[in-house]
Write a structure and sequence with these properties.
Layout (H helix, E strand, L loop, with lengths): L11 H5 L5 H8 L3 H19 L5 E4 L10 H5 L10 H23 L2 H24 L1 E3 L11 E9 L2 E10 L12 E5 L3 E6 L9 E7 L6 E2 L11 E2 L19 E4 L8
Antiparallel strand pairs: 1-10, 2-10, 3-6, 4-5, 4-7, 6-9, 7-8
């Protein structure tokens, strides 16, 4: 799973799954849906930060005791430790829809948007309660999603080609964070793709490289995590048929919040 701080939890396409005419309504009312997604995530982040200070219970997931993180540390968690579980994604989608229709209603006091605002406000409340009751997924040693890798080429023997590249940070105990966005690169003839990582995250102990010949089809090219700061150069044998990028870290524990006062 991605982490809360890895980027946008939901995208416009997720909102359209609930409201097919959302884009048309947003255009008609001059509403920027990307801005509403960011606002929704900011609001949820504030509520999660408040929940971190509330009394709650920790439930271990069966993945083993976390030797480097105490129960107290996970009880008073940081946003960087929050995993994007299905209830959290639902909350974000509904919160963004509620904000969008609230804005649409308030711009012209148009009653046709009032019912939508009320509906999604209640759905956001339901999703947040579901999250707090079933537990906020927490990662003891979070490995963040990296920014895009640096791609170019070195001297080599390969033909000209277009490649799509992603990377991820490797953490302690075999943990792997979510993969970066992909980068497309066209390499000339008699060259070899070269990929270098950006500045390393504090929790990274290595990195993984994913390359494919089509968008969305990148596979892992290293059998073991590469050394931080070490560039990877595509071998003369070509690409390896490795695994696809994973979705990120699974929660180590779930923390419930028995009682939570939500604004609204």
């Amino acid at each position: 799973m991605a982490l809360f701080t890895d980027g946008a939890i939901s995208e416009v396409v997720d909102l359209i799954a609930y409201e097919a005419n959302l884009v048309e309504a947003a255009q008609a009312e001059g509403i920027d849906l990307e801005t509403k997604l960011r606002l929704a995530q900011s609001e949820i982040g504030a509520e999660l930060a408040a929940a971190a200070l509330s009394p709650g219970n920790i439930y271990w997931t069966g993945r083993g005791w976390i030797s480097t993180g105490s129960e107290e540390n996970l009880s008073r968690f940081r946003l960087e430790q929050v995993a994007v579980t299905p209830p959290l994604k639902l909350w974000h989608s509904f919160q963004a829809l509620a904000i969008a229709y609230r804005d649409a209603y308030n711009r012209k006091v148009n009653d046709k948007y009032l019912a939508k605002w009320s509906e999604y406000k209640e759905l956001a409340r339901w999703a947040s309660n579901l999250l707090f009751q079933t537990g906020i997924g927490l990662v003891a040693k979070p490995v963040p999603r990296p920014s895009k890798p640096v791609v170019d080429w070195a001297a080599g023997t390969l033909a000209a080609m277009t490649l799509w590249v992603r990377m991820s940070w490797a953490g302690a105990d075999g943990a792997e964070g979510a993969a970066s966005e992909e980068v497309a690169v066209e390499t000339p003839a008699n060259s070899a793709l070269r990929v270098a990582p950006p500045a390393a995250a504090a929790t990274a102990t290595g990195w993984n490289v994913y390359v494919g010949t089509a968008s969305g089809e990148a596979t892992q090219q290293n059998s073991q995590p590469l050394t931080l700061g070490q560039a990877w150069i595509m071998p003369a044998a070509g690409l390896a048929a490795g695994a696809a990028p994973g979705g990120g870290q699974e929660p180590d524990v779930y923390r419930t919040v028995p009682r939570f006062l939500q604004r609204g």
